[in-house]
C-alpha cells in the first residue's frame, strides 16, 4: 500500500515540476516577444487594445505615418474612442476601420480575422500591450493571418501580468478558448 502511494506522489511531483517548467518557459517567451517590434509593410495595422492613452495613439499614428499600412483596424472594446482621436489628429477616416468586437482573448481574434478576411486583409501588424503579443500572434496565425507584432512601447515590467499572459497562452493552447 505504501509503495503505491509513493508511486502516485512521484507522478504528481513530476507533473507539478513539468507544469511549472512549462509555465516558466512560456513566461520567458512572453517577455521576449514583448520586446520585439516586428513592424513591416502589411495590409493593415490591427489595434487590439482600447488604445485610449497617448502612448498607444502615438504608436499607431507613427506606424501609419511611416506607411507600414494604408489601413488601420480597431478592435478593442472601446475602439471608437481611439478611432475618433486619430481622425482628430489628421488621419483619413477612410483608412480607419472599426471591427465591432466586444469579445476578449482568442474570441476577439476570431472576430478580427473574419473581419480582416472580409476586407481582403491577410498580412497584419498587431498592436496591443506588450505582454499580450505572444498570445495574439499564436491565435492570429492559427486563424490563417500572416501576423507580426508591434507592442505599444513603454510597458513597465510586471511579473503578475507576465504570469497571467503565460497562463492565458497555455489556456489557449490546451483548450483553444
What secondary-structure arrangement, pairings included, does this model have?
Elements: H1 2-34, E1 44-47, H2 54-65, E2 72-74, H3 79-88, E3 96-98, H4 105-118, E4 123-127, H5 133-142, E5 146-149, H6 159-175
Helix pairs in contact: 1-6, 4-5, 5-6
Short recap of the structure:
The chain is of the alpha/beta class and 177 residues long. The protein has helices at 2-34, 54-65, 79-88, 105-118, 133-142, 159-175; strands at residues 44-47, 72-74, 96-98, 123-127, 146-149. It has a 5-stranded parallel β-sheet with strand order 3-2-1-4-5, with helices on both faces.
Overview of this protein structure:
There is one protein chain. With 177 residues, the protein is an alpha/beta fold. The protein starts with a helix and ends with a helix. Helix 2 links the parallel strand 1 and strand 2. Strands 3-2-1-4-5 form a five-stranded parallel beta sheet, sandwiched between helices. The chain has one domain (33-175): Rossmann fold. The protein has helices spanning 2-34, 54-65, 79-88, 105-118, 133-142, 159-175, and strands at 44-47, 72-74, 96-98, 123-127, 146-149.
